[in-house]
Amino acid sequence: MTTRYRVEYALKTHRRDQLIEWIKGLLAVPFVLHSQPTIINQEPGEGLTTLAAADTHQRYAEIMQDVERLIEAHMHHEKVSLPGKSKLKLLVPTVGTFFTPLHLREAFRYQDQRRFISRRRFVAPSFNDIRLILNSAQVLGLIKTSSVELITFDGDVTLYDDGTNLLSDNPVIPCIIRLLRQGIKVGIVTAAGYSEAPKYYERLYGLLDAVHENGVLTTAQKDGLVVMGGESNFLFRFNPAEKSKLSYIPREEWLLDEMRSWKEEDIKELLDLAENALLTCKETLHLPVEVLRKDRAVGVYPIHGAKMDRELLEETVLAVQNTVERSAVGARLPFCAFNGGNDVFVDIGDKSWGVRACQRYLGGIEPSKTLHIGDQFLSAGANDFRARLASTTAWIASPKETVDLLDELDSVTITHAKAS
Ligand code: IMP
Ligand code: MG
């Protein structure tokens, strides 16, 4: 049953992506005006249904074209340092920076062929329809107006199911090898934070062994694979000479200048504060968890395989985030509090720093030539969200969607190369 509490809870802005909601609202108008719920499919009136769908397709496509233009204008205003003039910013105040144009009309056509959005008479264009259109539009934007030099991947849910490992039969492996073969650098930017390479080998061995055993990839191409752990805290590079196929890169070799000013005392103070806030949540919400304190993170994870309610996980994230944000140290030091599906962690730094550090370590790759693929893009309690500050992004909902997106990227690349 939908209670008033649930409705209001669901309306909370941290559970909504405002750009997606706004586009959904725009498409709802032609859906209401043009969909024909009273036409029965099986009747000879099939022609009429097809006609109505074509009309709806046309209206949706026009709206996507208009949004595409608004994004172009927004990019222009940001470029000439007049962001206040952006109409898109007025309509969607939370909208951020776009590093490439988004080819929304073409992306809509592509997704409409797969998802039959304009043929639907009872279900309006949904959050997932628009999320996938935006991903396709981003892929087109990267290939047509820029190029791809680095792809960074989140781990859990993006490369493998939550809490599992990247096994050797994972279909993402051939896709990643294809990227490396094309000279594209690959980073795995995960929250999982360990200073020892064997821990990452345990998690990623399917991919690391496949890259190691691949006889077609050159040494330079294999060198293009890095792992950034703890959001932005531990960097590793592929190294076939190591048993774990990874070698740890000392911080002096990759820290960004701004990161050098992060003081050890501040890190300790912030983690102490977060730990206390987590302990308070454990007590007041009766969470069946243990607290885990690490070098650059603190978190709670369930004991005896307990499954925690989403509401309690989110309450914990928001409570801890609020406490740290309001502190002096929280203002000095970047941090990321997030809901990991069945645990809550607070990490020092965030994925914007992680992606930027990879870009710089791999030779100074620009944001417009980087794509970060992840599953956590809500504005609070999600850790891929911050990557939007450093690169273009794609929001996927399962490892299968990651594979589909990489296949789409490959086919757009081939089509574009043929055409030019
Ligand atoms: P991601 O989806 O690849 O970013 O991985 C997130 C998951 O890594 C979390 O949900 C935790 O289960 C796990 N994890 C292990 N160590 C850490 C840590 O130090 N910080 C945050 N998450 C961690
Ligand atoms: Mg994830």
TrEMBL record:
Catalytic activity entry: IMP + H2O = inosine + phosphate
Required co-factors: Mg(2+)
UniProt GO BP: inosine salvage; nicotinamide riboside biosynthetic process; nicotinic acid riboside biosynthetic process; nucleotide metabolic process
UniProt cross-references to SUPFAM superfamilies, sorted A to Z: HAD-like
Sorted UniProt keywords: ATP-binding, Hydrolase, Magnesium, Metal-binding, Nucleotide metabolism, Nucleotide-binding
EC numbers for this chain: 3.1.3.-
Domain of life of the source: Eukaryota
Enzyme class, broadest EC rank: hydrolase
Function: IMP-specific 5'-nucleotidase involved in IMP (inositol monophosphate) degradation.
Annotated protein name in UniProt: IMP-specific 5'-nucleotidase 1
Organism listed in the record: Penicillium argentinense
